[in-house]
């Protein structure tokens, strides 16, 4: 995302500011949701649902201001695809993932889709990798078992940031 911001700055300042605002918003909301999920194992609808509206307005405005219709459609498709993937995982094994994670996935998919579908794959992979490493550490340190429930939202947000900060 840093490289995208650098590319937008000289020619598309409005797109730059919209994308920077979207990144800042994700940082604030993602941190808050991660903290809440770590403490309560919940991702509240009163935070996640408005995040769809704010994020989509900022990301789509950045796409339109940058005069790139392809990005506009990638934002929408990224959100829908990641939501569908997490919904499928939730449907296949309901005990393994909460529906709050499914709802959050759509928002994170919009951000990843903004940069491209390969980022969608990297962000999803990074989330599951980070969550898996954390779970393994819990087992190895005898702080949990294979059936322990861990909040996955923080790993989804962290995986998204790993992908967003990857160089192109």
UniProtKB/TrEMBL annotation:
Its EC number is 3.4.23.43. Gene3D superfamilies: 1.20.120.1220. One of its GO terms (molecular function) is aspartic-type endopeptidase activity. It is an enzyme of class 3 (hydrolase). InterPro entries: Prepilin_IV_endopep_pep, Prepilin_peptidase/N-MTase. Residues 30-136 form the Prepilin type IV endopeptidase peptidase domain. The chain crosses the membrane at residues 14-35, 47-65, 71-89, 96-114, 120-141, 148-166. Keywords: Hydrolase, Membrane, Transmembrane, Transmembrane helix. PANTHER family: PREPILIN LEADER PEPTIDASE_N-METHYLTRANSFERASE-RELATED, TYPE 4 PREPILIN-LIKE PROTEINS LEADER PEPTIDE-PROCESSING ENZYME. Belongs to the peptidase A24 family. This is Prepilin peptidase.
